[in-house]
Specification:
2 strands, globular, 6 helices
């Protein structure tokens, strides 16, 4: 049991609440561009590796392959992604179109703006401290829990 007074805010809970608020802000700005967080994430993954399968993309996004197929279809309908078939028996290669690259660049710009807004009043070294704490938390393996 912790000896922390009940009135002291938990840093973990503050980070969780802050993350949710930042996600809401990002999603609101992405909607103005015709994107969602899922579409933005898929664009980013495809931009880094066009040879990813739907299953690979789905694993990275934490969704089912069927859901990722729907996501890619939405990106195709937006004109952001096109499938280039290499031939019978080969998987499709997903490539960003010019529109897809422009959307990705704009979305990354929105993320940079949110970074600046979030850290505007941080002391010198504040961004580095936040980044390091987040990276440590993300690198810590989850405890094994048998099913």
């Amino acid at each position: 049991m912790s000896n922390a007074p009940e009135s002291a805010p938990s840093t973990v809970m503050l980070v969780i609440a802050t993350g949710r608020r930042l996600q809401e802000r990002l999603e609101a700005r992405l909607v103005d561009m015709g994107l969602s967080l899922r579409l933005f994430g898929a664009l980013g993954h495809i931009s880094r590796d066009a040879d990813l399968s739907y299953s690979d993309l789905a694993r990275r996004a934490g969704v089912t392959s069927q859901s990722m197929r729907a996501t890619v279809l939405m990106l195709e309908e937006l004109g952001a992604v096109e499938r280039n078939l290499r031939g019978q028996g080969h998987r499709a290669r997903l490539e960003l179109t010019e529109r897809g690259r422009a959307l990705l660049d704009r979305a990354r710009g929105v993320v940079a703006e949110l970074d600046e807004e979030f850290l505007a009043d941080a002391p010198a070294g504040g961004k580095q401290a936040v980044d390091e704490a987040c990276h440590r938390a993300l690198e810590t393996p989850l405890p094994f829990r048998p099913a």
